[in-house]
Amino acid sequence: MAADLFDTDDPFGLPPIEEEQAGANAPAELTVSEVSQQLKRMVEKNFSFVRIRGEISRVTVAKSGHMYTSLKDADAVLDAVCWKGTMSRLGLRPEEGMDVVCTGRLTTYPGRSNYQLIIETMELAGQGALLKMLEERRKKLAAEGLFDASRKKPVPFLPRIIGVVTSPTGAVIRDILHRLADRFPRRVIVWPVMVQGQGAAQQVAAAISGFNALPPDSPHRPDVLIVARGGGSLEDLMPFNDEALVRTAAASAIPLISAVGHETDTTLIDYAADLRAPTPTAAAEMAVPVRAELVAGVNEMTHRLSAATQRGIKQHRIHLDGLARGLGDPRRMLETATQKHDHLSQRLDAGLAAWLEKRRGRLAELSAQISPRPVLRRIADTERVLSGHAERLSQAAKRLVAEREKALSSSAALLDSLSFERVLDRGYAVVFDGAGNIISSAEKAQGDIDIRFRDGTRKAKI
Q: Could you tell me which of 178, 210, 191 has the C-alpha nearest to residue 279?
């Protein structure tokens, strides 16, 4: 009976499970994509905004401009992504080894079954004294406008002379010269300087100032400057973070390309330069175009222009032939036009003669109707009216002059009666100070004075 109740093939000796019962208790079947989507929604819902501190362990910037990195601490690693649009707003350049605080949201990447942080902001955490100093200096110089895009000068398309400020013994100058020779050979003037250690910043600044001090018409004045050195540690690149050097680079009248370190290295001179090259070789590529490409482009445009001209001529020839087929015989057309011209000329002569004759008859009719008597009579009437108006105008003018003379005499008599000179005639006098002002008070009468009588003025002193 035991063999009937239990499945002896089951190693645990459990009773067999009916197929329908097993299906009823089993969880719902999900696809891999469905599970991934549910996990994605759960993670994004519970971690829509997080603030995470960690050390950047790797930095990879894809061709699309998006940055992929990882944040780690002693026990865990968290993948992180910073989209291209956010990268430009971070305010700092992520580098391996930086201790940073990132804010953003957590999500999952189903393609690799892992979770990651979408970075929205990033700031340094636990800054060393050096990084903190550099960040404060960068903010100070940026606030002064030294890094503004409006200050950037365009680099000439094909410079005549290129000035290079670098070490004359390193591989940097050889890479630059080799790249220039490959692309478009140009005259290069090297200003040898130290690019590391004590005094390097002063030498580089002096080189930039020296090139700018050359007269504009000097045959040795460069059209563009390249400040270059190879990669190195943060301490090795410190001369290019010198404030005086950065100010000199920003004030350069000659366009300046900064090519300091590798692509991941950033110094303050990069912000002040007109162009920033990721490597010294890239700086040479920015300074000149590729001669072979220019020649090929000119040849291609010449060929295209010639082909287009030939096509245009051919099309116009075909169009002209088509128009010619639609035209009649020019000689026959000219004969018809000549005959029509002669016919119209004859009609014109006859019509002009008839018109003149008609106008001549009308003129004779009008001449017979015109008589000078009405005109002379109207002239005589107008003269009589004008004579009357002239007489009335003359009488009115005489009356107006008489009235005005009478009013003027009255005003003159009144003015004369009110004049202080009439008072002087009665024995009074007027006292003036030295400035010609009337003295009306005894307290003000002092010093040199003028006393005016009826017949003259006398000076006095009180």
A: 178
pLDDT confidence of 165, banded at 50, 70, 90? very high
What is the pLDDT, as a whole number, of residue 6? 47
Task: With 0.85 as the threshold, say if the pTM is over it.
Answer: no
Distance CA 289, CA 407 (A): 98
Q: Give residue-wise pLDDT tens across range 398-452.
A: 899 999 999 998 888 888 777 777 777 777 788 888 787 888 787 777 888 888 8
DSSP 95-117: -TT-EEEEEEEEEEETTTTEEEE
Residue keyed to tokens 């690799």: 112
* CATH code of the domain made up of 32-126: 2.40.50.140
CA 85 to chain CA mean position, Å:
22
Helix, strand, coil percentages (3-state) for the chain, rounded to 5, are: 50, 20, 30
168 within 8 A of 190, measured Cβ to Cβ:
yes
Q: Give CATH superfamily name and number for 135-289.
A: Response regulator (3.40.50.2300)
Nearest to 247 by CA among 271, 230, 275: 271
Rg for the chain, CA atoms, rounded: 54
